Amino acid sequence: MKKRSKMVLVSHCILNPCSKVEGVKKDTSYNLKLVKYFMKNDIGIIQLPCPEMYMYGSKRWGHVKNQFDTRFFREQSKELLNPLISQITDYVENDYEIIGVIGINGSPSCGINKVCTGETWGGEFRNLDIVNRKVKELVYSDGSGVFMEVLMESLRYYDIDVPFYPIEEFNPDDMINETISRII
Ligand code: SF4
Fold first, then answer.
1. Does residue 104's CB lie within 6 angstroms of at least one atom of ligand 1?
2. What spacing in Å lies between the alpha carbon of 150 and ligand 1's midpoint?
3. For ligand 1, what atom is nearest to the CA of residue 103?
4. Are 51 and 16 in contact (CB under 8 A)?
5. I need a labelling partner for 6 at 20 to 30 A (CA). Which of 111, 126, 135, 164 fits?
6. Which of 80-84, 165-169, 180-184 is predicted least confidently?
């Protein structure tokens, strides 16, 4: 029997750290392990688009999920994902196996099971007191990023069952080892 070719979908910044918000560590050499593993094992890598770069550019602030949980953000995410979903359905129909989606925990867009949230995040940053209060109210919450939720829904719509794996934005090395061991 012919061996099925495998593919993985990865968040954009795993391959292109320049897309990250300014101030977030852009050294993603730790991703090399992940990419090497896939390449060594002939696993195709599909790079997902970066929704935040597309919608807000490289000068954007760090956001929280509360701000992106809007109809606009979801519609734009869907629009960005549509061409990819067409490709993915084609691959699946032609017996390729999508072995996983790898996202970035902490991201309000690409978190898999952890996202930054903040009820008061946003609005006017007039003085340091306001800024400090907002920062203090930032919560690392359970849940997926909005872009990942849209991707999950789209894959479900086409009955494509794919596991989702997180890389931890603030502790990537450990998470990468764990992700590799789970994905094998
Ligand atoms: S986590 Fe997602 S939104 Fe954030 S930089 Fe990476 S690809 Fe872009």
1. yes
2. 14
3. 1
4. no
5. 111
6. 180-184
Q: Which domain holds residue 171?
A: 6-183
Cβ of 77 below 6 Å from ligand 1: no
Among 139, 126, 121, 143, which residue's Cα sits nearest to residue 61? 121
- Separation of alpha carbons 40 and 11, rounded Å: 20
pLDDT tens, 40-88?
999 999 999 999 999 999 999 999 999 999 999 999 999 999 999 999 9
Residue 124 counted as domain residue? yes
For the Cβ of 107 lying below 6 angstroms from any atom of ligand 1, the answer is yes
Ligand 1 centroid, distance to 90 Cα (angstroms): 25
Q: Of 9, 10, 13, 149, which is best to mutate to test ligand 1, by the most ligand atoms within 8 angstroms of its C-beta? A: 13
Number of domains in the chain: 1
Does residue 92 sit within a domain? Answer: yes
> What would the mean pLDDT of 149-177 be, rounded to a whole number?
86
What is the rounded CA–CA span in Å between residue 106 and residue 104? 6
Whether 1 is covered by a domain: the verdict is: no
The CB of 105 under 6 Å from ligand 1? The reply is no
**Average of per-residue pLDDT across 149-168:** 95
- Could you give the CA distance from residue 16 to residue 91 in angstroms, rounded to a whole number? 24
